[in-house]
Write a structure and sequence with these properties.
2 copies of one chain form a homodimer. In chain A, 73% of the residues lie in helices and 0% in strands. The first copy, chain A, is mainly α. Chain A is globular and about 60 Å long. Chain A starts with a helix and ends with a helix. Chain A binds chain B through residues 26-28, 31, 115, 152-154, 157-158, 160-161, 164-165, 167-169, 178, 196-197, 200-201, 203-205, and chain B through 26-28, 31, 115, 152-154, 157-158, 160-161, 164-165, 167-169, 178, 196-197, 200-201, 203-205. Chain A binds a DNA duplex (30 and 30 nucleotides) through residues 4, 33-35, 43-47, 49-50, 54-55.
DNA sequence: TCACCTATTGACCATTGGGGTCAACAGGAT
DNA sequence: ATCCTGTTGACCCCAATGGTCAATAGGTGA
């Protein structure tokens, strides 16, 4: 089906993927423009339709492809025998940063796809999401040793505060990068800052 | 300039404001459609241009108007003699919820306006933002008694964790509301849940 | 009843931009 | 010289855009 696309060298694939997910993430399915995508990707209009047939098929392919990308990275590299929550979440943050280095709009695209309500694709996306939820949900917290947390607080809320902190931290850094001229992201600095938050949160929520 | 609009009864003004900021927040300046706005507001196309002249003037008016709305509410109702950080931030959360009741897309609109890069309005918006930053920034934390916080952690990071928690909490609730059929928001329940987070964060970060 | 007036309508206009097509081409291999 | 595969971009039709304006609705005073 998409073999023509998948046989390209990775650099070109990634250029097209990034152009497309950026456009969809920013504007949603309906208002994303194939003209913009080909301009950003540096290919001709005809070629895009040669690879994907039409806009809808391209969008659905991207959704599947991005989800696989994420799932593969996480389940290959996350050590499920690791029982410490902070170590585990640190792993997750690193993996996320690695992915964002190659695909800056990967997670934004997936998030927006969840909210997509263009009638053209809503049904298919909803179906995909439902299937995925049945399989994947909750695996990230599997096997964690929760006895290390102080027990005078609702542990679910603690976990939320911690994950929210790292989500907001990375969102803030992405925002800064967008405002800066070259859109440059200093992953090293972010990582060091994240470490300081780890320290604070450990002090605050472990026994 | 906009006196024709401002002389309308408040209900009609709000209907138009909400239709417009929703459209701009969702699609950005360029792709926001005046047709969609008038449809959602329940007025005719001609009337919108009768009030605002053109799309650009409407957008810039909305930005100013929304900013004033927020500023007025905050500086009228926040008690700057209140020295306790949690009490202060609780006030802020309540005010934000009140505003969201009347203008569900108010903050989303402002946030997106900050990122707007349509050439048509970018210059004006950037200028407005610059002016505002010089005046307003940092007032929210003025006069807070920071000695109540434990001193084995970087206090700036603590403040961030706390504000982020409440931002994420409200974002999560907005998301839930979007998924629910009637888009209904149960402010009472959110408020109670926020209280539980206040309790946890106090325990974690006060001496 | 009718003339006047202001607030409001929505069909209409020129123009842009959309998704999608396809004849033509580039250039390496046989 | 002839394929062949990968690639181009001018072109198509049409939907939708921001904006206009003659026509109307409906209240007011005479």
């Amino acid at each position: 089906m998409f073999s023509k696309f998948l046989n390209l060298d990775k650099e070109k694939q990634d250029r097209i993927i990034n152009a497309a997910i950026k456009e969809f993430a920013q504007k949603g399915y309906d208002h994303a423009s194939t003209n913009e995508i080909v301009k950003e990707a540096g290919i001709s209009k005809g070629l895009l339709f040669h690879y994907f047939g039409n806009k809808k098929q391209m969008f659905l392919f991207l959704f599947d492809h991005c989800y696989e990308l994420i799932a593969d990275h996480f389940y290959q590299k996350i050590d499920l025998t690791e029982k410490d929550f902070f170590t585990r979440i640190r792993q997750a943050v690193i993996i996320k940063m690695e992915l964002l280095k190659t695909y800056p709009d990967l997670f934004k695209f997936i998030e927006e796809a969840y909210l997509e309500d263009s009638p053209e694709v809503k049904m298919e996306v909803d179906k995909k999401i439902k299937e995925l939820n049945e399989v994947n949900l909750g695996k990230v917290y599997e096997g964690i040793d929760f006895s290390k947390f102080r027990n005078d607080m609702d542990i679910e809320k603690i976990l939320k505060i911690i994950t929210w902190t790292f989500e907001k931290l990375s969102a803030e850094e992405l925002f800064k990068a967008k405002l800066s001229p070259e859109h440059h992201i200093d992953y090293e600095r972010i990582f060091l800052e994240a470490e300081e938050y780890f320290e604070i949160l450990t002090k605050a929520f472990y026994k």
